Amino acid sequence: xxxxxxxxxxxxxxxxxxxxxxxxxxxxxxxxxxxxxxxxxxxxxxxxxxxxxxxxxxxxxxxxxxxxxxxxxxxxxxxxxxxxxxxxxxxxxxxxxxxxxxxxxxxxxxxxxxxxxxxxxxxxxxxxxxxxxxxxxxxxxxxxxxxxxxxxxxxxxxxxxxxxxxxxxxxxxxxxxxxxxxxxxxxxxxxxxxxxxxxxxxxxxxxxxxxxxxxxxxxxxxxxxxxxxxxxxxxxxxxxxxxxxxxxxxxxxxxxxxxxxxxxxxxxxxxxxxxxxxxxxxxxxxxxx
Length: 289
Prior knowledge:
Shape: elongated
Radius of gyration: 26 Å
Largest sheet: 3 strands, antiparallel
Low-confidence stretches: 1-5, 266-289
Structural class: mainly alpha
Order of helices and strands: HHHEEHEHHHHHHHH
Number of strands: 3
């Protein structure tokens, strides 16, 4: 009876199991990080035109559908094909024959005044935004939904480690043994598993590098550079918004910004400068890469 009372749980001493468990968790965690990084860097990709030739693509890459719509609205306003007031937009005039598909969709949608915030959800605009996303995925700049699911599934590795720790904790509790350190390790492992299962990058590592390179190359379009939109033209203005957020517009042309939306505020950061703004199109807003 005395021998049975002093036998270790599973025949493994608590300190030995804890050391082995930490080693397993560290190894699996490191392997998971490597696997997620590899999945976030697609191999062969289809060729894609220079991103600067498609400023709305750049905006979608940086901030998703919301920022892409802002990019298009700015270009259309400067071309004189759209007017904005009190948070609504209205199409005016005619587009050029070779107009961008996103601008065409917005122009058609705004044939009657429409709220700027509704554009990203409109049934005529969503296909154009989806085409932007498909092009960026094909070019290796954004991750497909399937690739993102595969990245999240890597979290099941750590979840398995958490399950092992939970079984040991329950076994030790049944044997009335101390479990404080093991519970702490289990909580950390579980937290890592939950994060990996719920979060995945939107941009690929190639997309992050491309965006950083474009921002460096076109630093003159940043808000603190106070770019002249008249000399840059609609495409340059749209690219500035895509790279540096709506602050690139608000800092240099606050009157125009107020016409598009009163919520826009001047900023010298590279983020989306719209209060309450977000990734309405489900694209690569923030650091998702």
